[in-house]
Records
---
Amino acid sequence: MKPQSVKHITDRNSLSDLYSSLFTGRDVFLKSDGVNIKVNFIKFSNGRIYLDIPVENYDVKRTAIYTRNMEEVAYSHIIPTGMEDKYYVFETEGSQIFFAPRKEQRIQIDAAPGKKTVISQLISNFVIKESLMQNQSRVDWLRHEIASGITEKYDYIKVFFLGDKNIDARMSILMDDRESIFVPDINSAKQGNDNETDPALYMQNIYHLENELAEKNLVSEISVPLMYKMMMPFGYIQANRRYPLTEEDLFKLKRLGLAYSESISRDNSLFSPSGDTITISDLSSGGLGIIFREKSIAKHFREDALVIFTAYLPDSTHASILCRVSNITLSGNWYRVGCRIENIDSEGETNYRKFLQSE
């Protein structure tokens, strides 16, 4: 099957063959409110799917099941119809098979003595957001303090923190890129250098969505991220002018952003990482998996959320790692969280690479 190809199956006889060969007796997972639950695929009979779902009082709703076979994933949308004996019964409109090769080989971690590999000091972007919202007086003080520290004259200044509003275009961009937004002049048609933001993207995703920029005749912008441990954005400093901004302006605002990022990251009233110790089950250069049984730990994870933690490796080495949560799976009494590595601190990256090479 070609990488971009998707095979759709709706014929009942073909579906019967598919479920018999790919689902029965295999690891099958049910999509459920951000957690993928491992279920027992009992049978496909008379156009219906029978599942044994090992969750007490499971809230049945329209969802999907999937399973992996080598480099292919079979995926079916299912609609609940009721129960028969102890099994949940679903109908399906069909199934899809698509090509989804694993990006890289994961190394399974040996649990033998001397091989303990865990993470701790974990905090996620949504926990930071909730903390900032609950400490509004402290945040307002910081906002005033930062704005007062900008000595250059700008026509518009804003200091934004996660939680100031639900949807913010700049914050979304900074969360993904973690790089400053720098638009020296919207009237310049071309992007000048690597430091500059694509003016077309800026106009589409920010400028045309904020009427006050045009109303105030603002033609340039710099927005630098405020980052927890210099890796996870939790706000930004925005400055605009009615005339072009320069590289020197960018340098000064970046330096200010770095200084406040470092000082605010030490504020225990705003940032309180979890002290839980969680076992690393497998890892690679681009990602890792962690496992735990405690339901209380699961609250720290949501699909697509950013999380930052310290990974404690053998030989008393460690690494501060920023990850994006790819998936959360519940299998029996065990949770497994798969994470894609977004960034590692410089010293920690050396330790992490050495550990991978030693396995």
---
Amino acid sequence: MKSKSIFTLLCSIIFTLCLCSVAFANNAKTEAIEFLKQATQNTVNTQNAAYSIDLSMTGPLADCNIKLNGNYAYPVFTNGDMSLLLNLWIVDTSFKANTQYYTELDGNVYKQYFKTQTEPKLDNDNSGIKSDQWYVQSIKIPEDFIQNYKKEMNNNVDGIDKDIKNIFMYDANKNTTKIYVTYNKALLDEDKLNQALSISDLNSKEMQEVNEFYQKINENKQLKEALTKQRELSYEITIDKKNMRITSVNADLSPVIYELGTDILNNISDEKLSVNGSPINGATVRNIIKNYLERSKFNMTIQLSKFNTSPVETVPQEVKDSAIAPPKIEKIGEATDTTDILTVDTATDSLPTLEVLDNDN
């Protein structure tokens, strides 16, 4: 009888500890979400800041690194530079490109100025882009863009806890704390895509071609499922406790890129992957791509600093005076007389992912 009472007491204690653990975990999750929301809201409300973005890929055959450094001012003013470095180990060659850029709003026209220098130089290539020449791209935006932009940003902050699978705070000290958050969401947000297209400066012909290309994706069930499938993506976020602002975001993109690539490859037949029509060859190509993705690392790092003390440089007058429109591509994916780009039709013909995903294999 006594042993039964002791057993009952132990069970009660264990049950109570379990309840306390669940309650503590829920409280910790709620605290982390509220902390992240507040930091995100403060960061979004910043009038200007300095930023750096580093995207890197390391693989068996090539390494690629893209870095952006510049200043941002609300709502969409920026200036800075972007560098690209590509090393192709398989052919022992490298390519470098450096781009200076400015963006501004001129009434309801969004303008982006840029100048690119490359090594080796590409002045004799088919792109039509010349080194040391400033170019300007202009996009008309709705009159209420800024009002809607601010509203959309606030909605994003309010919904920051949507699709969170796991979140916790760690490595806290008197200056900073870190939050590790995992989201489970689709890579393709159709609403966001349609919103972006609605403010783009495409003429009716170009918009029709975009719609036709998008329709090709919709017609391939497996491809669309791969793009809209819920996938896990984790971020390590550092927050400055004094100012309650986000100062860095790190993400290992390797798992989600491998998973997406594998899902798409699995829906392409061996025949379509083959370079010579042999199913065996197609299976080999699939395995080579999968192995490459598995052995490659994709990382992203974003850093923010100098909040409200880093104004954007205005576009120099000499840049405005010398800037010209970049070579016009008359059709999405189509080359001009001086370019060598595939048309939409020939491009989609050469992409097996858009043709065979209706097949069972």
